[in-house]
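The methods section describes the discrete structure representation at length, but only in general terms. What matters is that the chain and its backbone geometry are given together, residue for residue. Nothing conveys this as quickly as seeing an actual entry. For illustration, here is how one protein appears when written out as sequence plus structure tokens:
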Amino acid sequence: MNKIKLMEVCGTHTMAIAKSGIKAILPESVELVSGPGCPVCVTSQSDIDKAIAVSGIKDVIIATFGDMMRVPGEKESLAQAKSRGKDIRMVYSCMDALSIAKDNPKKRIVFIGVGFETTSPTVAATIMEAKRQKINNFFVLSCFKLIPPALYAVSNSDKVKIDGFICPGHVSVIIGTGPYEKFAACCKKPCVIAGFEDTDILVSIKRLVEMIKARSYKAEIEYKRAVTKNGNTKARKILASVFDVAPGQWRGIGIIEKSALKINKRYASFDAEKEFDIKISATLPKKGCMCGEVIQGIIYPNECKLFKRTCTPRNPKGPCMVSSEGACAAYYRYGK
């Protein structure tokens, strides 16, 4: 039988696999590669440049999670814009950004919304709360992505052949197994939703290999202590109340249909893209940076010529080295 190639589609899994040295104990017949499971990493460079452009508008405060601060845009990062005097603040939740809006009624506060189905429900709930409290100086730049469409994109790619997927535990708490079941049956790729302990990941790998050998294309839950078949229906209802599904631009992959969340008409007054009419011309990626190939599982981080040379955590050239869930950061920290 040919070598079995499995992809973990979660940045937390990527870091856990690297830290525990799981790849070193796998047989040569099983290969693990990282996929588009780090939300910071898959955020397009144009979205970073949009955020930086908004930070330059008078009386605007940008609120963002820490990982986003150092991701390079075409010319600079949010951290570099902050060093030039722009009011850019790191927050731990979207509610923190809403509090900033209440404390600064004469300024417009823009929260940079990055994440998957795990993060987006809390942001949707914050937007609903802003409407309830009639806070009209709070906005969200929605860069949210959906995991299942990315699985189809990777599976249909002619650049890499993936035999099975280790699916993200956090996202699956929200969406359940339904989307994976449809994907597994359609693309003939087995899926296992895994927890984050070493044993969780190893059990999931074993089960995927068994299904691949048996040509059984199903979606199973290993992470049963947190994930249920139906997921969190309340969270999905909140998402559907605030967001519409739209095409999304993914770093390295391009546009994936029905893979992004954009604020709907009912809550359009909180949409930063409508408030500021942001227009960004096509931006050039960092020369030599291969983050796009890394998050598609086409190459390993150490195959990028910039890795550990000009690209380090102190001087990152791409988001995969910035994010705490990035594959390049994992390789840099824990080695091959």
